[in-house]
Amino acid sequence: MKHGLLFCALLLLAPASVLAQKPGDWVLGKWRDGEFWFPGVVQSRDGGTITIAYDDGTHETVALNKVRPYDWTLGSRVECRWSGGKAWYAGAITGLSKDGTQIDVKYDDGDRERIATGGCRSR
Asked: Which of 69, 90, 109 is a domain's end point?
């Protein structure tokens, strides 16, 4: 019992980047070390770096501290490209597809849409 509690405590204290490390893990990565987190899947890990295949089709190798577990849930704040356009609009997630590849977003202006996760980002 003590070992189980110790493991849980260590897990809670571990940086999020340590928890998202193996190929196949769905993660959020900081594209080009910017301020936004984009969803993707870990392709490989080599020491202190992770290669991510982002949901929008791009790839990047980043440091471990630029990766965290995918944590978008109902109510999460995101910015998405309305109807696949170029401008980003803020909103909140109101629904998730069963396979997780699409989200329902209610934008701050009241508009709603279902959009692929590759068209969204978070801060």
From this structure: 69
